Amino acid sequence: MIPDSPTSNGRIIRSAGWFTIAFMAPFLLYVTAFLILPTLMLLATAFLGKHGLTLHYVRSLGQGQTVVAFRNSIELSAMAAFVGLVVGGLTAYFVLLPGMPRGLRSLVTTFGAVAANFAGVPLAFAFIATLGSLGIITVWLKLIGMNLYGSGFTLYSLPGLVLVYAYFQIPLMVIVITPALEALRREWREAAENLGASAWDYWRHVGLPILLPSLLSAYILLFGNAFSAYATPYALTSGIVALVPVAISNVLSGNVMVSQQTGAALALGMIGVMVVVMGIYALIARRVGRWVKR
After folding, report:
1. Burial of 16 (0-12, 13-18, 19+ CB in 10 A)
2. What is residue 1's predicted lDDT score, i.e. its pLDDT?
Protein backbone atom coordinates (compact mmCIF):
# COMPACT_ATOMS: atom_id res chain seq x y z
CA MET A 1 0.00 0.00 0.00
CA ILE A 2 1.42 3.37 -1.06
CA PRO A 3 1.48 5.92 1.77
CA ASP A 4 -0.12 9.29 1.27
CA SER A 5 2.28 11.93 0.06
CA PRO A 6 2.91 15.12 2.08
CA THR A 7 1.31 17.10 -0.74
CA SER A 8 -1.98 15.20 -0.53
CA ASN A 9 -1.99 15.52 3.27
CA GLY A 10 -1.49 19.26 2.98
CA ARG A 11 -4.37 19.54 0.52
CA ILE A 12 -6.65 17.63 2.88
CA ILE A 13 -5.69 19.88 5.81
CA ARG A 14 -6.24 23.04 3.74
CA SER A 15 -9.62 21.82 2.47
CA ALA A 16 -10.68 20.95 6.03
CA GLY A 17 -9.58 24.39 7.18
CA TRP A 18 -11.59 26.14 4.47
CA PHE A 19 -14.60 23.97 5.27
CA THR A 20 -14.35 24.94 8.96
CA ILE A 21 -14.12 28.63 8.09
CA ALA A 22 -17.11 28.39 5.73
CA PHE A 23 -19.10 26.52 8.37
CA MET A 24 -18.27 28.98 11.17
CA ALA A 25 -18.60 32.15 9.09
CA PRO A 26 -22.39 32.56 9.55
CA PHE A 27 -22.06 32.11 13.30
CA LEU A 28 -19.17 34.57 13.55
CA LEU A 29 -21.12 37.05 11.43
CA TYR A 30 -24.13 36.64 13.71
CA VAL A 31 -22.04 37.20 16.84
CA THR A 32 -20.40 40.26 15.30
CA ALA A 33 -23.68 41.81 14.18
CA PHE A 34 -25.71 41.16 17.32
CA LEU A 35 -23.10 41.12 20.11
CA ILE A 36 -19.82 42.85 19.25
CA LEU A 37 -21.16 45.78 17.22
CA PRO A 38 -23.98 46.66 19.68
CA THR A 39 -21.45 46.58 22.54
CA LEU A 40 -19.14 48.92 20.65
CA MET A 41 -22.08 51.21 19.90
CA LEU A 42 -22.96 51.27 23.60
CA LEU A 43 -19.40 52.25 24.45
CA ALA A 44 -19.41 55.02 21.87
CA THR A 45 -22.81 56.32 22.96
CA ALA A 46 -22.03 56.25 26.68
CA PHE A 47 -18.74 58.15 26.36
CA LEU A 48 -19.64 60.61 23.59
CA GLY A 49 -21.52 63.84 24.18
CA LYS A 50 -22.24 66.95 22.19
CA HIS A 51 -18.69 68.21 22.68
CA GLY A 52 -16.76 64.95 22.32
CA LEU A 53 -15.59 62.47 24.93
CA THR A 54 -17.21 62.81 28.36
CA LEU A 55 -17.64 60.86 31.59
CA HIS A 56 -20.82 62.70 32.55
CA TYR A 57 -23.19 59.88 31.64
CA VAL A 58 -21.10 57.19 33.27
CA ARG A 59 -20.87 59.27 36.45
CA SER A 60 -24.67 59.47 36.47
CA LEU A 61 -24.66 55.78 37.45
CA GLY A 62 -23.74 56.96 40.95
CA GLN A 63 -26.91 59.01 41.36
CA GLY A 64 -29.47 57.99 43.95
CA GLN A 65 -32.24 56.62 41.74
CA THR A 66 -29.79 54.72 39.54
CA VAL A 67 -28.05 53.18 42.55
CA VAL A 68 -31.43 52.07 43.90
CA ALA A 69 -32.30 50.49 40.53
CA PHE A 70 -29.04 48.55 40.42
CA ARG A 71 -29.36 47.47 44.05
CA ASN A 72 -32.93 46.27 43.51
CA SER A 73 -31.97 44.40 40.33
CA ILE A 74 -29.00 42.69 41.99
CA GLU A 75 -30.97 41.75 45.13
CA LEU A 76 -33.91 40.49 43.08
CA SER A 77 -31.68 38.45 40.77
CA ALA A 78 -29.66 36.99 43.66
CA MET A 79 -32.76 35.96 45.62
CA ALA A 80 -34.60 34.58 42.59
CA ALA A 81 -31.52 32.62 41.51
CA PHE A 82 -31.09 31.21 45.03
CA VAL A 83 -34.73 30.10 45.21
CA GLY A 84 -34.45 28.49 41.78
CA LEU A 85 -31.16 26.82 42.70
CA VAL A 86 -32.42 25.26 45.94
CA VAL A 87 -35.98 24.34 44.98
CA GLY A 88 -35.14 23.33 41.41
CA GLY A 89 -32.12 21.31 42.48
CA LEU A 90 -34.07 19.41 45.15
CA THR A 91 -36.94 18.84 42.72
CA ALA A 92 -34.60 17.34 40.13
CA TYR A 93 -32.93 15.18 42.78
CA PHE A 94 -36.20 13.72 44.10
CA VAL A 95 -37.53 13.12 40.59
CA LEU A 96 -34.43 11.09 39.73
CA LEU A 97 -34.66 8.83 42.79
CA PRO A 98 -34.89 5.12 41.85
CA GLY A 99 -38.28 4.56 43.51
CA MET A 100 -40.10 7.33 41.65
CA PRO A 101 -42.70 6.49 38.97
CA ARG A 102 -41.33 6.30 35.43
CA GLY A 103 -43.69 8.89 34.02
CA LEU A 104 -42.92 11.47 36.71
CA ARG A 105 -39.64 12.50 35.16
CA SER A 106 -41.22 12.97 31.73
CA LEU A 107 -44.02 14.99 33.28
CA VAL A 108 -41.64 17.25 35.23
CA THR A 109 -39.30 17.69 32.27
CA THR A 110 -42.16 18.56 29.91
CA PHE A 111 -43.66 21.02 32.37
CA GLY A 112 -40.21 22.51 33.00
CA ALA A 113 -39.59 23.10 29.30
CA VAL A 114 -42.93 24.95 29.03
CA ALA A 115 -42.76 26.89 32.31
CA ALA A 116 -39.15 27.98 31.77
CA ASN A 117 -40.28 29.88 28.67
CA PHE A 118 -43.53 31.20 30.13
CA ALA A 119 -42.72 34.76 31.17
CA GLY A 120 -43.49 38.34 30.26
CA VAL A 121 -46.96 39.86 30.27
CA PRO A 122 -48.88 36.52 30.34
CA LEU A 123 -47.02 35.42 33.48
CA ALA A 124 -47.62 38.79 35.16
CA PHE A 125 -51.33 38.62 34.33
CA ALA A 126 -51.56 35.04 35.64
CA PHE A 127 -50.11 36.06 39.02
CA ILE A 128 -52.25 39.19 39.23
CA ALA A 129 -55.33 37.04 38.61
CA THR A 130 -54.32 34.56 41.33
CA LEU A 131 -52.33 36.47 43.97
CA GLY A 132 -53.19 40.09 43.20
CA SER A 133 -55.14 42.24 45.63
CA LEU A 134 -58.34 40.82 44.11
CA GLY A 135 -56.89 37.52 42.89
CA ILE A 136 -58.64 34.20 43.26
CA ILE A 137 -56.33 32.80 45.94
CA THR A 138 -56.26 36.12 47.79
CA VAL A 139 -60.07 36.23 47.94
CA TRP A 140 -60.29 32.57 49.01
CA LEU A 141 -57.79 33.11 51.81
CA LYS A 142 -59.66 36.19 52.95
CA LEU A 143 -62.86 34.13 53.21
CA ILE A 144 -61.19 31.77 55.70
CA GLY A 145 -59.73 34.63 57.72
CA MET A 146 -56.27 35.06 56.15
CA ASN A 147 -55.65 38.55 54.78
CA LEU A 148 -52.41 38.43 52.78
CA TYR A 149 -52.26 42.11 51.96
CA GLY A 150 -53.38 43.06 55.45
CA SER A 151 -50.43 41.15 56.91
CA GLY A 152 -47.92 43.07 54.79
CA PHE A 153 -47.56 40.87 51.72
CA THR A 154 -47.88 42.48 48.32
CA LEU A 155 -47.26 41.02 44.90
CA TYR A 156 -46.01 44.38 43.65
CA SER A 157 -42.71 44.39 45.57
CA LEU A 158 -39.31 42.69 45.52
CA PRO A 159 -40.55 39.63 47.49
CA GLY A 160 -43.53 39.42 45.16
CA LEU A 161 -41.26 39.56 42.13
CA VAL A 162 -39.11 36.79 43.61
CA LEU A 163 -42.24 34.65 43.89
CA VAL A 164 -43.14 35.38 40.27
CA TYR A 165 -39.62 34.77 39.01
CA ALA A 166 -39.54 31.42 40.81
CA TYR A 167 -42.18 30.19 38.34
CA PHE A 168 -39.65 30.13 35.50
CA GLN A 169 -36.44 29.91 37.50
CA ILE A 170 -37.25 26.59 39.19
CA PRO A 171 -38.13 24.73 35.93
CA LEU A 172 -35.02 26.15 34.27
CA MET A 173 -32.91 24.84 37.15
CA VAL A 174 -34.51 21.40 36.83
CA ILE A 175 -33.60 21.27 33.14
CA VAL A 176 -30.04 22.50 33.69
CA ILE A 177 -29.06 20.39 36.71
CA THR A 178 -30.65 17.07 35.66
CA PRO A 179 -27.71 15.95 33.46
CA ALA A 180 -25.24 16.73 36.27
CA LEU A 181 -27.27 14.68 38.75
CA GLU A 182 -27.48 11.80 36.30
CA ALA A 183 -23.69 11.86 35.98
CA LEU A 184 -23.31 10.91 39.66
CA ARG A 185 -22.51 7.23 39.62
CA ARG A 186 -24.30 4.90 41.98
CA GLU A 187 -21.02 3.08 42.59
CA TRP A 188 -19.59 6.16 44.31
CA ARG A 189 -22.36 6.17 46.90
CA GLU A 190 -22.15 2.43 47.40
CA ALA A 191 -18.40 2.70 47.94
CA ALA A 192 -18.90 5.50 50.48
CA GLU A 193 -21.54 3.48 52.33
CA ASN A 194 -19.26 0.42 52.39
CA LEU A 195 -16.59 2.58 54.02
CA GLY A 196 -19.05 3.62 56.72
CA ALA A 197 -20.09 7.02 55.40
CA SER A 198 -23.57 8.30 56.13
CA ALA A 199 -25.77 10.03 53.57
CA TRP A 200 -24.62 13.44 54.88
CA ASP A 201 -20.96 12.37 54.67
CA TYR A 202 -21.43 11.23 51.09
CA TRP A 203 -23.00 14.52 49.96
CA ARG A 204 -20.52 16.60 51.93
CA HIS A 205 -17.35 14.90 50.74
CA VAL A 206 -18.34 13.38 47.36
CA GLY A 207 -21.66 14.52 45.88
CA LEU A 208 -21.61 18.27 46.49
CA PRO A 209 -17.92 18.77 45.57
CA ILE A 210 -18.55 17.05 42.24
CA LEU A 211 -21.75 19.02 41.64
CA LEU A 212 -20.36 22.36 42.81
CA PRO A 213 -19.10 23.57 39.39
CA SER A 214 -22.46 22.69 37.83
CA LEU A 215 -24.32 24.41 40.68
CA LEU A 216 -22.22 27.55 40.28
CA SER A 217 -22.82 27.58 36.53
CA ALA A 218 -26.55 27.12 37.07
CA TYR A 219 -26.63 29.97 39.61
CA ILE A 220 -24.90 32.32 37.16
CA LEU A 221 -27.39 31.33 34.46
CA LEU A 222 -30.35 31.94 36.78
CA PHE A 223 -28.88 35.24 37.96
CA GLY A 224 -28.43 36.49 34.41
CA ASN A 225 -31.90 35.27 33.45
CA ALA A 226 -33.48 37.26 36.29
CA PHE A 227 -31.18 40.28 35.91
CA SER A 228 -32.17 40.82 32.28
CA ALA A 229 -35.92 40.21 32.70
CA TYR A 230 -37.97 43.23 31.65
CA ALA A 231 -41.50 42.44 30.50
CA THR A 232 -42.58 40.56 33.64
CA PRO A 233 -41.57 43.20 36.24
CA TYR A 234 -42.76 46.07 34.06
CA ALA A 235 -46.18 44.51 33.46
CA LEU A 236 -46.50 43.50 37.12
CA THR A 237 -45.34 46.66 38.89
CA SER A 238 -45.70 49.33 36.17
CA GLY A 239 -42.36 50.77 37.23
CA ILE A 240 -43.17 50.98 40.96
CA VAL A 241 -40.06 48.90 41.76
CA ALA A 242 -36.97 50.58 40.32
CA LEU A 243 -35.08 48.10 38.14
CA VAL A 244 -32.34 48.68 35.57
CA PRO A 245 -34.13 47.02 32.58
CA VAL A 246 -37.20 49.17 33.29
CA ALA A 247 -35.01 52.29 33.46
CA ILE A 248 -33.46 51.42 30.10
CA SER A 249 -36.92 50.90 28.63
CA ASN A 250 -37.84 54.44 29.65
CA VAL A 251 -35.04 55.67 27.40
CA LEU A 252 -36.09 53.47 24.50
CA SER A 253 -39.73 54.52 24.85
CA GLY A 254 -38.80 58.16 24.24
CA ASN A 255 -38.70 59.59 27.77
CA VAL A 256 -37.50 63.17 27.18
CA MET A 257 -36.29 63.43 30.78
CA VAL A 258 -33.60 60.79 30.19
CA SER A 259 -30.95 61.08 27.48
CA GLN A 260 -29.96 58.30 25.12
CA GLN A 261 -26.41 58.38 26.51
CA THR A 262 -27.74 57.66 30.00
CA GLY A 263 -29.52 54.58 28.69
CA ALA A 264 -26.27 53.38 27.10
CA ALA A 265 -24.46 53.96 30.40
CA LEU A 266 -27.11 51.89 32.21
CA ALA A 267 -26.63 49.07 29.71
CA LEU A 268 -22.87 49.23 30.26
CA GLY A 269 -23.54 49.05 33.99
CA MET A 270 -25.51 45.85 33.48
CA ILE A 271 -22.66 44.40 31.43
CA GLY A 272 -20.26 45.41 34.19
CA VAL A 273 -22.33 43.63 36.83
CA MET A 274 -22.39 40.43 34.79
CA VAL A 275 -18.63 40.67 34.16
CA VAL A 276 -18.04 40.97 37.92
CA VAL A 277 -20.34 38.01 38.62
CA MET A 278 -18.59 35.92 35.96
CA GLY A 279 -15.23 36.90 37.41
CA ILE A 280 -16.29 35.76 40.88
CA TYR A 281 -17.54 32.51 39.37
CA ALA A 282 -14.22 31.97 37.58
CA LEU A 283 -12.25 32.45 40.80
CA ILE A 284 -14.49 30.10 42.77
CA ALA A 285 -14.52 27.51 39.99
CA ARG A 286 -10.71 27.60 39.85
CA ARG A 287 -10.44 27.03 43.60
CA VAL A 288 -13.04 24.27 43.47
CA GLY A 289 -11.19 22.61 40.59
CA ARG A 290 -7.93 22.56 42.54
CA TRP A 291 -9.72 21.20 45.61
CA VAL A 292 -11.47 18.42 43.66
CA LYS A 293 -8.19 17.36 42.02
CA ARG A 294 -6.67 16.89 45.46
Report:
1. exposed
2. 46
